[in-house]
Amino acid sequence: MKTKLQKYIALFFLCLCPMLLASPVYKYVGEDGVVTYSDTPQPGSVQIEVKPIQQYQAPSGPASPTQGTTMPALPTPQETTYTDLSIKEPKEGDIFSTSTETVTVLGSVTPDLDPAHQVVLTLDGKPYGTPQNMLVFTIGRLERGLHTVQLAVIDPANPGKPLISSKAVTFRQYRVSKLYPAQEGVGMPTNGSAPATNP
Length: 199
Description:
Layout: H1 2-16, H2 18-21, E1 25-29, E2 35-38, E3 46-48, E4 84-89, E5 95-96, E6 103-110, E7 118-123, E8 126-132, E9 136-139, E10 145-154, E11 164-165, E12 169-173
Parallel strand pairs: 5-12
Antiparallel strand pairs: 1-2, 1-3, 4-6, 6-9, 7-8, 7-10, 10-11, 10-12
């Protein structure tokens, strides 16, 4: 019983130790009939063939993103394409009386203004104020005569190329002439047309 137990123990360790399996294994039967297994040859020992242990290899799953696959590229933000930009106030041909101290320019854009873009106001062919993210501008006291305003939407990264521009709007500002002072309303047209005398 003891001999069989020693045999099983020796076989057990031989199966668990790959290093032993990689070396030659010798079987020796002593005079008392005890079988001994060793990696060192002894007189009368016989080299035996030990079959390699079968190993289970799990099937490979889908490759991770870092193993040969390419992550999908993030979508590139689409730049807003404007279809309309117009000036709602003032209207073409509007007339402002001598008491007018400020003129409000109100614009409208379709689609809505992109937060990354800005609006520029041009007064009489020159930029007025600074670009802003709103479509409302206030112009300070103007001199008498005709004035033209225009709006444009720009990308601050490329301000020299407007994304869209409105039509220009021309209006008239009346002021009391220093050469011909008059009371408020004198010389002002009543039907929207220009006065007969010099404003």
